[in-house]
Amino acid sequence: MAAYVVVDAEVLDPTRLQEYRDLAEASIAQYGGRYLIQGTVPEVVEGTWPSSSRVMTVLEFATMERAREWYASTEYGRAKSAREGAIDVRLLLVEGKSE
Fold first, then answer.
1. Structurally, how many domains does the chain consist of?
2. Closest CA to 8 of 45, 37, 47
3. What confidence tens digit (pLDDT) does each residue in 57-93 have?
4. Which pLDDT score, from 0 to 100, does residue 44 have?
5. What is the number of other CB atoms lying within 10 angstroms of the CB of residue 59?
């Protein structure tokens, strides 16, 4: 069953964003993930959104196990280190609906 990574991020330092993106994208591909939504500012139709500098990203992996492997990987660890102080992230792993 597919698993999804839902990311709510606030960019604090746009000049350092590209280094994180490059490292994250390479690690996601290495673990078989793919972007469904990448760095998009959401259109708020109900409720409130914290700020206009927040963006959403949604990734898909084949299984929850694979998503966990990616998140715990050395490769993504490098991306996490690169984003320190540059991006404030809230990240969820969510299992997809079985049919």
1. 1
2. 37
3. 999 999 999 999 999 999 999 999 999 999 999 999 9
4. 83
5. 22
Give the span between the Cα atoms of 73 and 46, in whole angstroms: 36
How far apart are alpha carbons 59 and 28 in whole angstroms? 8
CATH code of residue 72: 3.30.70.100
Q: How far apart are the first and last CA of the chain?
A: 9
Tell me the C-alpha distance between 8 and 25, whole Å: 16
Task: Scan for tokens 């259109």, then name that residue.
Answer: 43
| DSSP structure string for 27-61 | HHHHTT-EEEEEEEPPPP-SS--S-TTEEEEEEEE
Determine the structural domain holding residue 87 and report its residue range: 3-95
Would you state the structure tokens that stand for residue 86, as one six-digit string?
């540059």
What does the chain come to in residues? 99
Q: Are 74 and 30 within 8 A, CB to CB?
A: no
